[in-house]
Amino acid sequence: MSDKSPGLKGPILEVPLPTEAISLRRKPADEPDSFFGRMMYNLQFIRGRGALEISIVLIVLLTGYVIASLISPTGFAFLNPNNLSGVISQSVPVLAILGLAAGILMIAGEFDLSLGANITLSAIVFIKTSEAAGLWAGIAAGIATGVAVALVNGLIVVYTKIPSFIATLGMSFFWMGAGIFINGTSPAALTTSREGTMEYLFAHNFGSFRSQLVWLIIIGVVAWFFVHRHRLGNHIFAVGGNPAAAEAISINTKKVKLMSFAIFGGLVGFASILIAVRTSSIQPGGTATEDFTLFAIAAAVVGGTSLTGGRGSVIGIIVGAALIELIRNGLLLAKAPGFYITLFVGVTIVIAAIFNKLMEGKAR
């Protein structure tokens, strides 16, 4: 511990923040030397974040799906190449990127329930700009729209201190209306601009995988280093876990929260591009993108992200998204009615929240 001289700007005390997040991120000095010992040690280390437990559930579910598909290849076509490509290379990457967006914001202690409206508006701007000015301008406009929408929401939340789930729920209707104002009630559609580079970058089928999976790997690696290894990621955990302690060591909590909203918006804007290129059109005011709000939060919660902030992991969120998409796929293959999917996701969120609460108690 050390302190700065009076009158100088900067931290008053250079000490670890007394938050759960910081304590979970630090390992004792007696790490084993052998490979097997380090592997078991690291598994134990990530256990407190919930990633290990949810990974075990995912493996058990996958094993059951594979056995069921081998027994009845036509009745439960999970191993069909088209089904595997659709789930693993298309559905999981988009939900995982949205889950990372929602999860990072939740670690900072905030929610954004306008995620679905943000997707629609960003996709509309991306489509119209791409059609008018080309692909690169469209990408920049789509991501910038996502960031701008999230920052407006963040400014309202940070400076008015209105609970984020109330402020962003209200703003979701505003952003949905903005999409209709820009495009009208007819669908915004990609025409000839989708061919060539755009299709190759965001929806190309490489045979055993698609472009979306590559983007998930890139974004996942960058997010992991930022959230778990960078100083600013540490600040996000600190602000979400213990805002008063963060302010005590001169962390600007407002800037950190706005940064978290901006990251959220950038990831949502990018995911909207993946969705727009895959579907080729977006319906303004429609409800097709609204489900992403619930499922993105569900992916974060199932992956071990705390609803009260200060706890979560990138790996856990990605595994949580994969688990939810696999469950949805299993219900569809079993020909379950559509409303059972939403019902199951709602129950899963509640169970995961209870489980995370129990894990938080064990991790302390």
UniProtKB/TrEMBL annotation:
<feature type="transmembrane region" description="Helical">
    <location>
        <begin position="84"/>
        <end position="106"/>
    </location>
</feature>
<feature type="transmembrane region" description="Helical">
    <location>
        <begin position="297"/>
        <end position="324"/>
    </location>
</feature>
<feature type="transmembrane region" description="Helical">
    <location>
        <begin position="336"/>
        <end position="355"/>
    </location>
</feature>
<dbReference type="GO" id="GO:0022857">
    <property type="term" value="F:transmembrane transporter activity"/>
</dbReference>
<dbReference type="InterPro" id="IPR001851">
    <property type="entry name" value="ABC_transp_permease"/>
</dbReference>
<feature type="transmembrane region" description="Helical">
    <location>
        <begin position="258"/>
        <end position="277"/>
    </location>
</feature>
<keyword id="KW-1133">Transmembrane helix</keyword>
<keyword id="KW-0813">Transport</keyword>
<dbReference type="Pfam" id="PF02653">
    <property type="entry name" value="BPD_transp_2"/>
</dbReference>
<feature type="transmembrane region" description="Helical">
    <location>
        <begin position="50"/>
        <end position="72"/>
    </location>
</feature>
<protein>
    <submittedName>
        <fullName>Simple sugar transport system permease protein</fullName>
    </submittedName>
</protein>
<keyword id="KW-0812">Transmembrane</keyword>
<feature type="transmembrane region" description="Helical">
    <location>
        <begin position="135"/>
        <end position="158"/>
    </location>
</feature>
<feature type="transmembrane region" description="Helical">
    <location>
        <begin position="209"/>
        <end position="227"/>
    </location>
</feature>
<keyword id="KW-0762">Sugar transport</keyword>
<keyword id="KW-0472">Membrane</keyword>
<feature type="transmembrane region" description="Helical">
    <location>
        <begin position="165"/>
        <end position="189"/>
    </location>
</feature>
<keyword id="KW-1003">Cell membrane</keyword>
<dbReference type="GO" id="GO:0005886">
    <property type="term" value="C:plasma membrane"/>
</dbReference>
